[in-house]
């Protein structure tokens, strides 16, 4: 039994006990029940209270003796006898059940509305009669004074089937395009139906006229709600003569007084899922509303949450056992859940022993689904040295690993690591010793990494504290206590390298300043080794020794910078000399390269240029070719790009083109000279 608590309301899940693996045979299950005390003591309130795959609707007969549920697959109805705590009968149906109603006090008269527009009647012995309605039905209600069944569905009409005469009566014409739910008031028998447009129409069955219209879609939208579409009505329930609760497809529950068109209260589930079921609990004035994810119990006067439940699987229907604190749900899973909430009321008379059990039970959550089996991965098997068992009967493959017997797992773990208990014991002893040490007088413990930096921060923190005390300011947080800089004093990769070039140039006075801290470091290490308390001033040291060195001496600072630069230059010269020696000692060996067919060897520079060019991106290569004049990119009038390029020519073609160019130039010069001579001769004749 699993126990949960919300708002100090304890909820006992009677169906969340230990379950056995499905692949075990019945014989092994019986053997486990005989051997294991926990399995034998588990609470199975009603034997085999489940469906093969999914349960869709669940109801209780008026006398409280029978619980009926429908589900799939195959479509079926199961009846459970609470007096016998077992299944009474099971009947398979032709199609899935949308909803059903128990007309009699026991299971002798049942009506099923099925998916294929069928309405099926069952009596005590089984199937009795079957008929069809013109349109697909979604819900129906039974009017007891006239023995009429009112069917609503994918139509604007409400179909009436009279069970006394055995025929259909004139249907009710509504303004809605489709209807989702309906209900009849148990006091004055007012018929109400919820439409797909988010309205509720109320009809008087005596006159067959509409007497009221509520626009719930408009009322459900408040300042706090966010909706994406038009809310439709998904649930409807009457409470007494004057109250009615309406659930919308966007996750709101509206409580109405029939004398007013405005809702008394609007409760939002904040999940955006359609409301599946609404129940009233009169002892504590609660409303139990459920969508596919959560069941909420809240006060109908104030809207304050009383408690809530979130089952593991999606919810299809909720049923409250009359005059008790028991709640049953139909889920998208084989097992139907049973909850017992002692605050809502006592346990039913057929399971009165629950009151005694719940007083003694304590919260004990289950860590694994199968307690007798341990789930291990392939890596776990390799660590335990049991990889050779893969494929044997000792391991059962499941998802990304295997199930193995818990006893075999413990034995293998003890053999693989026999000193696990000793290590655990040492760790516990060490923790106890550290707890006792924390009560003693604490010494200044410095971190292992960047001790000098930590000491500097401690000194600066002390100076800042004195300064802030004088000026009455707030202390800033220390870097040593800040989690963001915790790794800097734990990871050796963050150790400050004082021999690096940057450190020596940026911190020229670090050698002088660090002398004080090094002295303090030695003193602290001696105190930690001897286990003594830290003294403010060690013996043999004057109090004025630390203030003797002046940090404001500019000459010393300049000299220190010059020394550091000289040292860096000397180190660079030494490194260069070592590189020259290494280069002289290395012998260069000739390397031969093979030229591919169809290529000419020009020079190593051309090949290097070609390799560099091939490494560049297409954009860079196009830009380079555009600069050289081999490529031209221009915009067209349509908006696209036009590119023209010139093919590269071989050496022989280039020489031939140059010779042709020279020949053309020579011919041009000859022509010019000839024309010049002719013009001169003509002028001479004119003068003569």
From TrEMBL:
Residues 369-417 form the Nucleolar protein 10-like second domain. It comes from Bombycilla garrulus (Bohemian waxwing). Residues 482-508 form the NUC153 domain. This is Nucleolar protein 10. Belongs to the WD repeat NOL10/ENP2 family. Keywords: Coiled coil, Nucleus, Repeat, WD repeat. Residues 648-663 have a biased composition (Basic and acidic residues). The lineage of its organism: Eukaryota, Metazoa, Chordata, Craniata, Vertebrata. InterPro entries: Beta-prop_NOL10_N, NOL10/Enp2, NOL10_2nd, NUC153, WD40/YVTN_repeat-like_dom_sf, WD40_repeat_dom_sf. Residues 1-364 form the Nucleolar protein 10-like N-terminal domain. It is found in: Nucleus, Nucleolus. Residues 528-557, 633-688 are annotated as: Disordered. GO terms for biological process: maturation of SSU-rRNA from tricistronic rRNA transcript (SSU-rRNA, 5.8S rRNA, LSU-rRNA). Coiled coil: none annotated. Pfam families: Beta-prop_NOL10_N, NOL10_2nd, NUC153.
């Amino acid at each position: 039994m699993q126990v949960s608590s919300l708002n100090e309301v304890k909820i006992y899940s009677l169906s969340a006990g230990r379950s056995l693996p499905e692949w075990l045979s019945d014989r092994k299950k019986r053997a486990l029940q005989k051997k294991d005390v926990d399995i034998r003591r588990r609470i199975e309130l009603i034997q085999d209270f489940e469906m093969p795959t999914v349960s869709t609707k669940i109801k209780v007969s008026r006398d409280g003796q029978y619980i009926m549920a429908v589900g799939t697959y195959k479509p079926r109805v199961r009846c459970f006898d609470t007096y016998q705590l077992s299944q009474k009968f099971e009947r398979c149906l032709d199609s899935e059940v949308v909803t059903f109603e128990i007309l009699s006090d026991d299971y002798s008269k049942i009506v099923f509305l099925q998916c294929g527009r069928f309405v099926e009647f069952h009596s005590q012995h089984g199937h009795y009669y079957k008929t069809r309605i013109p349109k697909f039905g979604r819900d129906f209600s039974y009017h007891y004074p006239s023995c009429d069944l009112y069917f609503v569905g994918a139509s604007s009409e409400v179909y009436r089937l009279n069970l006394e005469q055995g025929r259909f009566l004139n249907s009710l014409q509504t303004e809605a395009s489709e209807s989702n739910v309906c209900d009849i008031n148990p006091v004055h028998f007012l018929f109400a139906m919820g439409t797909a447009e988010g309205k509720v129409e109320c009809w008087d069955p005596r006159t067959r006229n509409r007497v009221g219209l509520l626009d719930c879609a408009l009322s459900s939208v408040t300042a706090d709600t966010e909706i994406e579409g038009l809310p439709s009505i998904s649930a409807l329930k009457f409470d007494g003569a004057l109250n009615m609760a309406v659930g919308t497809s966007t996750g709101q529950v509206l409580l109405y007084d029939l004398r007013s068109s405005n809702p008394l209260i609007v409760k939002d589930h904040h999940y955006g899922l359609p409301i599946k079921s609404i129940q009233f609990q009169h002892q504590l004035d609660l409303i139990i509303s459920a969508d596919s994810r959560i069941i909420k119990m809240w006060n109908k006067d104030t809207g304050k949450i009383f408690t809530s439940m979130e089952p593991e699987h999606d919810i299809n229907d909720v049923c409250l056992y009359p005059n008790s604190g028991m709640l049953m749900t139909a889920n998208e899973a084989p097992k139907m859940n049973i909850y017992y909430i002692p605050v809502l009321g006592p346990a039913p008379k057929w399971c009165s022993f629950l009151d005694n059990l719940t007083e003694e039970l304590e919260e004990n959550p289950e860590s694994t689904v199968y307690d007798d089996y341990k789930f291990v991965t392939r890596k776990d098997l390799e660590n335990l040295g049991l990889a050779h068992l893969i494929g044997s009967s000792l391991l059962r493959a499941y998802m990304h690993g295997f199930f193995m017997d818990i006893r075999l797992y413990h034995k293998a773990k003890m053999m693989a690591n026999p000193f696990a208990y000793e290590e655990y014991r040492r760790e516990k002893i060490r923790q106890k010793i550290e707890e006792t040490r924390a009560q003693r007088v604490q010494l200044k413990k410095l971190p292992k990494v960047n001790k000098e930096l930590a000491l500097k921060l401690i000194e600066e923190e002390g100076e800042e504290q004195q300064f802030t005390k004088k000026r009455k300011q707030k202390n800033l947080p220390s870097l040593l206590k800040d989690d963001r800089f915790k790794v800097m004093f734990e990871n050796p990769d963050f150790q400050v390298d004082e021999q690096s070039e940057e450190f020596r140039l940026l911190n020229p006075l670090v050698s002088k300043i660090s002398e004080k801290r090094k002295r303090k470091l030695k003193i602290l290490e001696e105190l930690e080794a001897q286990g003594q308390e830290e003294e403010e001033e060690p013996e043999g040291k004057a109090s004025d020794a630390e203030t003797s060195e002046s940090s404001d001496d500019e000459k010393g600072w300049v000299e220190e910078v010059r020394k550091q630069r000289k040292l860096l230059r000397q180190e660079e010269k030494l490194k260069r000399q070592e590189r020259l020696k290494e280069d002289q000692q290395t012998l260069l060996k000739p390397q031969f390269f093979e030229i591919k067919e169809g290529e000419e060897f020009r020079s190593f520079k051309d090949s290097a240029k070609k390799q560099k060019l091939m490494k560049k991106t297409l954009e860079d290569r196009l830009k380079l070719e555009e600069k050289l004049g081999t490529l031209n990119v221009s915009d067209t009038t349509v908006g696209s790009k036009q590119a023209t390029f010139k093919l590269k020519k071989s050496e022989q073609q280039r020489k031939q083109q140059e010779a042709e160019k020279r020949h053309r130039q020579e011919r041009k010069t000859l022509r010019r000279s000839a024309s010049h001579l002719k013009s001169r001769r003509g002028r001479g004749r004119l003068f003569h």
